[in-house]
Specification:
single chain, mainly alpha, two-stranded antiparallel sheet, 9 helices, elongated
């Protein structure tokens, strides 16, 4: 039996009613999507808040082994991701419910924004450079550009070196022929040979940020540790 077709509108008023009905359905769908996006951000912030509470109440060893438990096998979560979620939940602008309708419902995008100061994120929102549909890659590029610009401004504002007044100070300030050797990179306050960091990043195809803060350093170490453990497990499989 062929499906019955709906009666076609015959007057302008009928057409108006049909179009308004479809528009109402479209608006209802948009509201559901916005609500779902806010709920996603609320879940991200809620999880990060709970992880912050948990970490402060357990020992360092318990925290290090926490996500190795069988209970987390079916979830996309490890220590590196947990640290990023925790950083999101500490950012004053990102936890402000009144801003959630402007933010993308992605933990990767929110983590990139958490690397900026509160005022910087607020300015981006006010200028509508960040919207709910802004992709993670767009935000990553935006954050990197802002940090580069911030570094240039700090360099311009830096005070000039004092002019040497004595012969000894003049000799000390004079450029030397030997090539300057940069100090080794540090992770969590501990020196790491640059070659080791470079090898890990290249071997496991990981980007190594230039401006790691304490939590970023911990997340990077966790990523290295997780990648190395996966490599060991696969080599023994």
């Amino acid at each position: 039996m062929a499906p019955q077709s709906l009666p076609q509108p015959v007057t302008l008023k009928d057409w108006t009613s049909r179009v308004v009905e479809k528009l109402d359905k479209l608006e209802a769908s948009k509201k559901k999507l916005k609500t779902a996006a806010k709920d996603t951000i609320a879940s991200i912030v809620g999880l990060g808040t709970e992880l912050n509470r948990m970490k402060s109440s357990v020992s360092h060893g318990e925290w290090g082994r926490f996500f190795d438990q069988p209970a987390f096998e079916d979830y996309d979560i490890d220590q590196s991701k947990a640290i990023r979620l925790m950083k999101i939940a500490k950012h004053p602008t990102l936890i402000d419910k009144s801003k959630w309708h402007q933010l993308p419902p992605s933990y990767q995008a929110l983590y990139q924004l958490s690397r900026l100061d509160q005022d910087e994120v607020q300015e981006l929102l006010e200028k509508k450079l960040i919207r709910s549909d802004t992709s993670k890659n767009e935000i990553t590029t935006l954050v990197q550009n802002l940090k580069t610009l911030s570094g240039e401004v700090k360099e311009v504002k830096a005070l000039p070196s004092p002019t040497p007044t004595s012969k000894k100070e003049t000799e000390r300030a004079a450029p030397r022929d030997e090539e300057y050797e940069a100090p080794p990179k540090r992770l969590n306050g501990k020196p790491h040979p640059p070659s080791l960091v470079g090898i890990l990043g290249e071997y496991f195809d990981m980007d190594i940020p230039e401006d790691l803060d304490d939590e970023d350093q911990e997340a990077f170490e966790a990523s290295c540790r997780n990648a190395f453990q996966k490599f060991i497990r696969s080599s023994h499989a």
